[in-house]
Structure formats: C-alpha cells, structure tokens
Design brief:
Layout lengths: L1 H15 L5 H11 L1 H23 L4 H32 L1
Helix pairs in contact: 2-4, 3-4
C-alpha cells in the first residue's frame, strides 16, 4: 500500500514537471476552489451564531443583522477571490 502511494506520488510529480503546463494549472485551480469550502463553513457558522444571538436577545436585531451581513460579506469575498484565481489559472494565464 505504501509503495503504491509512493509510486502515484512520483508519477504525479513527474507529470507536473513535464512540458505540459496545463496539468499544473488545473491542479492549482482545484486547490484555489477549496476557498469556497472554507467560505461555506464560515458562513454557516456565522449564520448559526446570528440566529443564536437573536434567540437570546431579540431587542438588538438590527445590530446583529448588520454584523451578520458584514461577516457574511467577508466570508463571501474569500470565495470570490478563490473563484477568480481559479478562472485566471484555467483560462487567463
């Protein structure tokens, strides 16, 4: 099992070092799209905490909603940057 994994790793490295540059582009694009996963986890956490805060103290709904929107925008910007990097790697560079 260990030898098979090592062979796959060596084959992947040899493929990346070959003259075909598109392989590295697509691997980089896939890695940059992982930012979307982190953003989704962050937005889910922020949303859950906002609902929890509203359940505890409904009088400050406007303040909590404003802070939720700012936090969601920050999380979404990370996902958008990751998407832009992926698109640039695949089609632009």
């Amino acid at each position: 099992m260990k030898d098979e994994f090592l062979q796959i790793l060596l084959d992947s490295l040899a493929l990346l070092q070959s003259d075909n540059n598109s392989t590295g582009k697509y691997i980089g694009a896939g890695v940059s799209l992982v930012a979307g996963l982190g953003a989704a986890i962050g937005q889910g956490y922020i949303g859950g905490k906002a609902v929890e805060a509203l359940a505890r103290n409904p009088e400050v709904e406007a303040l909590i909603f404003r802070q939720y929107i700012v936090g969601a925008a920050v999380c979404e910007s990370v996902a958008i940057y990751g998407l832009i990097v992926a698109l640039l790697l695949m089609f632009g560079v």
